[in-house]
Amino acid sequence: MRIAWLNWLPTPELRVDSKLRDYAVITGNYWAFTLTDGALRMLVVLHFHTLGFTPFEIASLFLFYEFFGIVTNAVGGWLGARIGLNRTMQIGLLIQIGALSMLLVPEHMLTVVWVMVAQALSGIAKDLNKMSAKSSMKSIASDQNDGLYRIVAFLTGSKNALKGAGFFIGAVLLSLFEFQGAVTAMASMLAIVWVLSLLLLRQELGVMKNKPKFNQIFSKSRAVNWLSLARFFLFGARDVWFVVALPVFLHQTLQWDFWQVGGYLASWIIIYGFIQAAAPQLTGKDKTPQAVRSQLVLFGGLLALVPAGIAMALMYELSVVYVVTMGLLLFALLFAMNSALHSYLIVRFARVEGASLDIGFYYMANAGGRLAGTVASGALFQLVGLEACLWVSALLIAFASITALSLPQEEEGTA
């Protein structure tokens, strides 16, 4: 008898043998990459804060990371359709190893420009890896409704849980081995994963029979375009207060050390990841576009109230730790369900052949939202404070919820 609490696992909807093996390899690859990506983000924020960088300067270190994520998602989707998603994933791993290696230079060479270039490579690597993993799910799932939703939610949720673990690992490595020792450990681990990926993932995934032209990177699907705009607002809303403002606030205002900041944020992302993986159980079985659209509007409206509530509580000088902690838990619950529904819809709306083109375009919008949110996070926190970041977050979430109203109520974009 199948244990009830395991119902959210993706195994029943995977095609047997080779498909299951490919799913396992892709997921393991994605997990390993995510650990280093989360750890590197925390390493850069905390290390350069101790070197005396202002919040805005720290935010600027990630400008190229997010900007080249936009470019990569556009070009990467086209490239994946031509050479295969397994190859674009392996290229992403190799580029991330190169990005980490750039940070192993002597400390006096770690200028803003140098770190920005390294982060640019890391952004390219991250989005090649993500686009490849998500696009592969279209061909692996046999059930394009609940089954597809479950394997996408599991992949995305587990990835986010591990990114949270990466935040904590980054803070711990920085405390134990300092910056260069931490980076060396991560680069070595990824090199092993890269070799294993070359050996285990040989099948060409996602290659179109008719090679797409470069001008096909922009989606012509109404569903994909509106969903991409909603994604832009949603992830801009998260990063505008979470990426730079919150960790610096915890370290600077509350005087928390690296372990506390890293562990606190890691715990949040891990909880968020588990909620996202379990989202199919929380959002019901009706996964028609009409039902999902209604859920996005509802959950988006509720989510917008959370950062607004945190901002008001901070204005009235309530207990900072209590307010932020409770607010983050509510934010994790509602944001995870919104994000899981988004991730499911883009894979469902993507065309059957050449899914990476639509998914690449969608994650290009995702990277654009993260870029805008990251810049605003550093600038607003430095000029006004955390409360301003939270109010802007609430506004952007409201925009995402309103945009979801324009999503089609019927199936579109899968031809």
What's a concise summary of this model?
The chain is mainly alpha-helical and 415 residues long. The chain has a single domain (14-404), classed as MFS general substrate transporter like domains (Growth Hormone, Chain: A, Up-down Bundle).
Give a description of the structure.
- This protein is mainly alpha-helical.
- The protein has 14 helices and no strands.
- The protein has one domain: MFS general substrate transporter like domains (Growth Hormone, Chain: A, Up-down Bundle), CATH 1.20.1250.
- It is 77% helix and 0% strand.
- Helix 3 packs antiparallel against helix 4 and helix 3 packs parallel to helix 5.
- The chain is globular, with a radius of gyration of 20 Å.
- The N terminus is likely disordered.
